[in-house]
Each structure stands twice: as structure tokens, then as C-alpha cells.
Amino acid sequence: MSLTRLVVRAIACDGKFLGPDAGGAWITVRDPATGVVYADQLVTGTSSGPADLMTVSQPRTTPVAPDADTPALDITIDLAQPTLLEISAEGPWKLQPQGIGMNRVVMTQTVLPGVGLVGEVLPGGIATGFQIQIPGLAVTLDAPIGKSGLSVDIGAYVSMMCGCKISTSPPWPDSDFVVTADVFHGDALIASVPMQLTSTPSQYSATYLPPQIPRGSLYTVRVRASQKSFPNSGVSNVVSFVAGW
Questions:
Q1: Does one domain contain both 144 and 60?
Q2: Which CATH number fits the domain that encloses residue 227?
Q3: Under DSSP, is residue 97 helix (H, G, I), strand (E, B) or coil?
Q4: Where among 119, 135, 151 does a domain terminate?
Q5: Do residues 160 and 138 touch, judged by C-beta distance below 8 A?
Q6: Are residues 60 and 148 in the same domain?
Q7: pLDDT confidence of 16, banded at 50, 70, 90?
Q8: Cβ atoms within 10 A of the Cβ of 112, count?
Q9: Confidence (pLDDT) at 108
């Protein structure tokens, strides 16, 4: 048997690591052949990575560099022989209460005894580790939906999976994103309303004027978002509201 170190990190596609702004990521390491679970826990850390992570220039072959505060699952296990491990990361965990929006990525990797999954060791002994990329966008629909006269004000919060905010400037300019509120009456989609970024980063809004149907009609709203430059997308929880003329 050899002591074998595993360092696992979850990082957002076109984003930073899943730290406290994302509520962390749930990371699991198991041996699918034996069913042995080596780790199954929430990993949050104290930051999403270095402040310059999105602006530093590096070769494509260079792993994304974390710092001492970047979240990581860091464990040591005993292995007697090369072992195929299943490693998964699910997040952002802040979306877990709404029951929709998290993505789970499962990867397998053969791990050698005494070698492990450490990656490059940076100054200070920081290991880049085995990095799992989480795709998607985190979308939360504001509730309750505000009503002003006959119109309905729809608000939503859209961010990268790491919790990083969309604004009018790089690295995540709102021109790179499309956010839409879908309005349903019963099972029928009756309107798709474009949403615009407000003066608050990541906060989107739209105003919808329901058609002339009987007062007290029940509607539901769902917000979807996508990114043009990366294959990231996300959808919100569903919120109901009553309106009508």
C-alpha cells in the first residue's frame, strides 16, 4: 500500500473556481469497481481564486493556477495498485435549495499509487490539482414578481457558475449574454420577453404586459440565459403570479 494524495478542484467554464460566492461544489471520489467512497463532501474554500485569474496570460497547456485560498478537496488515500477512480463535482451549491440549475460533471482517471492527482506544485506548495470544469450559468428568478398597474416586473439574477458577476465590461460583458423570460398561461408559452442588465451587475429586468384575459388568471415565468462565446446556458426556477384585466 502507498499513501497517495488527491487534490480536486471545481472550476467554472469561462470562470473562476467554485468558492464561497458559488456556495462551493460537492465533490465525490469513489472506486466504481469496489464501491469504496474516499470522499463525499462540500468544498467551499475562502475565495474563487487569484484576483487576476481571468486576465493573466498563460499557454493553453498550463493549468489554471490557484492560490492558497482557492477551494480544493485535498485527501490522502492508500492504494496498492493502479486504480480507476470516479471523480465528480456538482455545483454551484448555492442553487441547491431551488432544486434546479446545478450541473454535475463525472470523470474517471487512473490513479497510480504514490503518484496521485496533484498536478503542478506552485511556490508555497500549492497544487494545481485535478480540475473539473463545470459548464453553465447560474440563474435565479426573483420572487415574488412585482406588479405595477397592469404590467408585471420580472427580475432575475444571472452569473457565472463561480458566482462571478456579469457587467458592462470584461471579463463577462452583458453583450456576450442573452437572457429571456418565458411566460406561460397554463401549458402554453404566450410570450418570450428579452431581459436587460440593470445598473446592478448580474441583475436583469423586464416588464411584461399580460393580454386582455379575465382578472385572476394564473401565469408562470421561467428565465433562461445563454452565453455567445462559450457553450454555457442555464435556466431558473419557475415562479407563478396572478394577473389579468
A1: no
A2: 2.60.40.10
A3: helix
A4: 135
A5: yes
A6: no
A7: very high
A8: 13
A9: 98
Give pLDDT, residue 98.
85
| Cα distances (angstroms) measured from residue 167 to each of 26, 89, 212 | 28, 27, 36
**Of residues 178, 193, 181, 191, the one with CA closest to residue 225:** 178
**Section 205-230 average pLDDT:** 85
Which residue range forms the structural domain that includes residue 95? 2-135
**Cβ pair 52, 67 in contact under 8 A:** no
Tell which of 109, 135, 161 closes a domain. Answer: 135
Q: What is the number of structural domains in the chain?
A: 2
Q: Which amino acid is at 106?
A: V
Nearest to residue 223, comparing CAs of 142, 104, 153, 102? 142
Specify whether 13 is located in the same domain as 48: yes
Which residues are CB-contacts of 165 (< 8 A; sequence separation ≥ 6)?
159, 172, 201, 202
- Nearest Cα to Cα of residue 232 among 157, 159, 139, 135: 135
Is the same domain home to 187 and 166? yes
55 and 171 share one domain = no
Residue keyed to cell 435565479: 140
pLDDT digits (tens, 9 = 90+) for 127-173: 999 999 999 999 999 876 766 667 788 999 999 999 999 999 999 99
Q: How far apart are CA 49 and CA 227, in angstroms?
A: 22
**What is residue 245's predicted lDDT score, i.e. its pLDDT?**
45
CA 58 to CA 93: how far, in whole Å? 29
